[in-house]
Amino acid sequence: MIPELGHFCLILALCVVAVQGTLPLIGAQRGRSEWIALARPATQAAFLLMLTSFACLTWSFYVSDFSVAYVAGHSNAQLPTLFRVAAVWGGHEGSLLLWVLMLAGWAFAVAQLSRTLDAAMVARVLGVLGLVAVGLLLFVLLTSNPFERLLPAAEDGRDLNPLLQDPGLVFHPPMLYMGYVGFSVAFAFAIAALLSGKLDAAWARWSRPWTMTAWVFLTLGIALGSWWAYYELGWGGWWFWDPVENASFLPWLVGTALIHSLAVTEKRGSFKNWTVLLAIGAFSLSLLGTFLVRSGVLTSVHAFATDPRRGIFILILLALVIGSSLMLFAWRAPKVALGGAFALMSRETLLLIGNVLLVVAAGSVLLGTLYPLIIDALNLGKLSVGPPYFNAVFVPIMAPVVFLMAIGPVARWKHAAGKDIGKRLWIAAILALVAAAAIPLLMGGWTLLTGLGALLAVWVATSVVSQTVLRLKAGMPPPSFWAMQLGHLGVAVFVVGITLVGGYQDERDVRMEPGDTTVVGGYTFRFNGVKNVPGPNYKAAQGEFDLLVDGTLLKKLYPQKRSYFSSTMPMTEAAIDAGFTRDVYVSLGEALEGNAWSVRVYYKPFVNWIWGGCLLMALGGLFAVADRRYRLKFKSTTVAASLEGVPS
Amino acid sequence: MKKFYVPLALFVVLVGFLAVGLNRDPRAVPSPLVGKPAPAFKVAQLAEPGKTFAPADMLGKVWVLNVWASWCVSCRQEHPLLVEFARAQVAPLIGLDYKDTREDGLRLLRMSGNPYDFSAFDGDGRVGIDYGVYGVPETYIIDKAGTIRHKHTGPITSEVLEKTILPLIDELKKS
Amino acid sequence: MKRLFLSMLLLLACAAAGAKDAAPLAEDPAVEKRLIVISEEMRCLVCQNESLAGSRADLALDLRRELRTLIKEGKSDAQIKEFMVSRYGDFVLYRPPVKPTTWLLWLGPFALMIAGVAALVAYLRRRAREVKDTPLSAEENQRAEALLKEVDQ
After folding, report:
1. Which of A55, A261, A295, B172 stands the most exposed, by the fewest C-beta atoms within 10 Å?
2. Which residues of chain C have a CB within 8 Å of the CB of B124?
3. CB distance from B7 to chain C under 8 Å?
4. Which residue of A has its CA nearest to B15?
5. Tens of pLDDT, residues A78-118
């Protein structure tokens, strides 16, 4: 019954969003207020229906209803409750349902929080969101229905992939999708602006908090994924330039360019076409990512089980949505007025350079990700493009962006004097140069990369600190100031993390018998043997290690080697002692002759600064959204009316 | 203004590639050995360890090398087709028992039938590496001059047999 | 995997019953280091999403064993790469080789960067010519001030 209810709600939702995506748009174009007024209630209804549908699927997982094919394929009676619920989005159909739910949720939020916005504009925004939802719901209902029945019902499910049985699954996909899908709002605002011809500073102001929020979620989602891979996979890597990772990173890069471009459009009325293009681009990359993950065109450890029919459907959806948006852009863009003037040396220019570089970086990642496919399609053979390529290309492009981060905030709008900037940044320059020499040497050896990393990080961090100190003298600055500083400081912290881990991490691959010790990074590991422990749906060999430093016992670590009942591949659960300045971790390899085991121990200096930096960036984003300009009591109607006469 | 159409144009090109890409298998690895001489090796035979086998022994004949193993599940899928192929006496079918133990290999042949003229034994997988084996079963068609003319990874299907393998063997035999 | 370690055990000195500093799994840490650097840039063909260095697949173990032998024989990095490519094709390399089919890949990003910056400079120059700021009149200035005050409340 419940699965059928869920299915029925999806069909109803499709009907509702079909209305949401057509009548309000036509209404806004023709000035028919009754049709415009349909937008909000349709969006609300669609969200409630999607929520119900999702709840039905969740219920099916919760009670382990194995007569639903999707549940049988991804769950198991012995699966702990937490994972049973998270398993809803552990496979293609369920995660797609989550995607559509998020889309409906964002639209709902826009409907609820935009009472003060111009009704026709809101109608257009919700209408565009409705159209996208139509495409996706058709995709779900026609090719990926999560409520398909399995008759006769399976006795027990096939189980959730053991790699996914981790708290990471609870948070990473929802956060990621909130971000990914959230860019649809910026996209909808951009399309609405193109349709209405009202592409101005006010549009940028409305668009900004939505875009920022999506960006915050995406930042957190990607960081979570990276951290999860690090502690779960057992060998210390945190980014693999895997096609699916790139698929989430591309919208992030363009999204970052977008939030900076929106700032300029809002303040100075400039870059309007570029900002609109970026908004279309960010969501397009989200859709492209969805395609890449689910169509089977690229090999990836993240890819869902695929079906060529699905690939074709998403490709058509992609072509329609993005193609029509870009056509609309090409048609309307020439009519958009240019904004205010600015000198060659100004904050506008610096932001623009940063934007261009971010887009070039995104383009490069896209090129590398798709190149194997392009070469294969042209029958020129088969090749792989992996981390060596991406690292070689990405670092030189992004280094200047990080460099500019210290200068941009210090440059004035419209016209910045070089002398002025020099005065504010000379301390940062000196400290950066000192750090570039000293930090690598202190850590154990100088290389070009570690020197560069130290230079950039200290350069940006010092700039942030000196700006903050200076600004505080004039009283408490607004949230937008903190947003900027936290965001950039986050990048500096991130750079410290990747530089020091990349340059100075160490590991040992050893054979240990009970009583043996091994040393890495100044930490001693003593192996005390292995014993068997049972788990809810696995049995594990658990090792016990003493972690010592200078002879004193710091902690006991318990890595495990798990055999899940449902899988033949054993899984390693590393034991990590996390710290502010380093992680030390140990993972079990294989049992050897006697009671010896192969063991890997790692020393990872400053690795948590990688995710700490991302948290700071996200925090900065939250401050930006919290700025009082966007508070709900902002009387935009009165201001909008008064802005009518002001030349843009 | 024409420049505003650039994003659209780039996008159309991208969609073109993606559409073509949908029909390709990203996991398939074409072999660089096709068109090159079959790598030389000399290993003992499976059933008669006293005898050896080297590809040079087959010079002057068109022959098929099939890499298999007792632990390989997909090999069972193509087994009936190999039996048919052997019965039709189209070309010599030599097996290469890859990363197996003699007993397990011989037992499998006893239980499900032996389509091979004989099998060579590659216990440690060294020959497999030289032949770029990565996913058993794999089948090579080698011509009279000892050059690899075709490699098929994965179990042979009747379609592949009809459309590719048999016609190729025919053609090679005539030259 | 077990066979490999058993043979290594024969080579290592028999472990005494007492505790000691754990012996590295690898016979020769220097060779092992080089192996890791080389195999990290190669794809495991079985799993296809892991590097040859990290994969635990049988084929990966065999290939690492082969590479170890080649390293001990004193082969250069290029020769080792050639060994792998001649058997498995370019697909096995994570660092795509630089050849005519990959010029676009390797040069693309930098060409893009140069083109981007050039386009930017051209745009800025043109913009400086086209856009003329219209300063506000005194009355418009007052209106602007009033509006800003309202916003700040």
Report:
1. A55
2. 62
3. no
4. A319
5. 888 999 999 999 889 999 999 999 999 999 999 999 888 88
Nearest by CB to C5, from A592, A599, A629: name it. A592
Boundary-marking domain end, from A165, A180, A197:
A165
Burial A379-401 (b: 16+ CB within 10 A, else e): eeebbbbbbbbbeebbeebbbeb
Residue A595: inside a domain, yes or no?
A: yes
User: Per-residue pLDDT averaged across A501-506, rounded?
Assistant: 92
B99 contacts C91? CB cut-off 8 A: no
Residue A627 lies in a domain: no
pLDDT at C134: 65
Tell whether C24 lies on the interface with B, counting CB pairs under 8 A.
no
Residue A157 placed within a domain: yes
DSSP state of A491: H
Q: Which residues of C touch B123 (CB under 8 A)?
A: none
CATH number at residue A2: 1.20.120
Nearest CA to CA, how far is C139 from chain A (Å)? 12
Each residue's pLDDT tens digit, A447-476? 999 999 999 999 999 999 999 999 999 999
Task: State the total domains in chain A.
Answer: 2
**Distance in Å, alpha carbon of C12 to nearest chain A alpha carbon:** 11
Q: Which of A360, A508, A513 sits opposite C113 (nearest CB)?
A: A360
**How far is it, in rounded angstroms, from Cα A227 to Cα A237?**
9
Alpha-carbon distances, residue A593 vs A512, A525, A563 (angstroms): 11, 21, 20
Calculate how close chain B gets to A311, using CA atoms only, in Å.
Answer: 7
Instruction: Give C127's contacts (C-beta < 8 A, 6+ positions apart).
Output: A338, A341
Which structural domain, as residue segments, surrounds residue A100?
A: 1-165
Does residue A181 surpass a pLDDT of 90?
A: yes
Output Rg (C-alpha) for chain C, integer angstroms: 31
Q: How far is A376 from chain B (nearest CA, A)?
A: 8
Comparing alpha-carbon positions, the chain C residue that sits nearest to B136 is C46
Contact residues on chain A for B21, CB-CB shorter than 8 A: 297, 373, 376-377
Q: Does C114 touch chain A (CB under 8 A)?
A: no
CB A253 within 8 A of CB A362: yes
Q: For residue B26, give the nearest of A326, A372, A381 by CB distance.
A: A372
Q: What does each C-alpha distance from A338 to A280, A325, A450, A602, B13 come to in angstroms? A: 19, 21, 43, 55, 30
Measured between alpha carbons, how far is A557 from A560 in angstroms, rounded to an integer?
Answer: 10
User: In degrees rounded to 5, what are phi and psi of residue A612?
Assistant: -60, -40
- Residue A239's CB: how many other CB atoms inside 10 A? 18
Give the pLDDT of residue C151.
65
| pLDDT tier for residue C149 given thresholds of 50, 70 and 90 | confident
Dig out the tokens for B48 from the structure: 């008669």
Which of the residue ranges A193-197, A341-345, A444-448, C17-21 would you say has the lowest mean pLDDT? C17-21
Question: Which tokens sit at A223?
Answer: 């960081």
Bond prior to B115 in cis (omega within 30° of 0): no
pLDDT, chain A, mean: 90
In this prediction, residue A636 carries a pLDDT of: 47
Rounded to an integer, the average pLDDT of A494-519 is 92
Chain centre distance of CA A165:
21
Indicate the residue among A100, A131, A165 that finishes a domain. Answer: A165
pLDDT tens per residue, range C38-50: 999 999 988 777 8
- Whether residue C7 has pLDDT greater than 70: no
| pLDDT score for A508 | 87
Structure tokens at C5: 């370690």
Mean pLDDT, residues B92-105: 93
d(CA A229, CA A300): 14
Q: Does B29 touch chain C (CB under 8 A)?
A: yes
DSSP per-residue letters across A380-404: S------HHHHHHHHHHHHHHHHHH
Length of chain C: 153
